[in-house]
Design brief:
By secondary structure, the protein is mainly alpha-helical. 72% of the residues lie in helices and 0% in strands.
Length: 85
């Protein structure tokens, strides 16, 4: 009975090591791209927030776009975001 238990523990440890190794390898390969993609989604949300504020004539601050490397033209927002609603 003990050998069955040790076999089970060994298999679980092997699976855990495999999973951890896979996660670490994936992080090394695509980790930076993943962070880049997530930050782009964050910037897209900030651009939407800025443009929707313009659509409501709220005169938003450029500080909304802080941390994003984008230049937003008010006319672009009005033509592409405001008209869609």
């Amino acid at each position: 009975m003990k050998s069955v238990a040790w076999s089970f523990v060994f298999k679980l440890a092997l699976i855990a090591i495999t999973l951890i190794s896979t996660v670490l390898i994936l992080y090394e390969v695509v980790g930076n791209k993943f962070v880049e993609i997530i930050s782009k989604f964050g910037c897209a949300a900030k651009v939407n927030e800025y443009c929707y504020a313009l659509c409501r004539n709220e005169n938003p601050s450029q500080s909304i776009l802080e941390g994003c490397d984008v230049k937003i033209d008010e006319n672009w927002c009005r033509e592409n975001v405001c008209k869609k609603d």
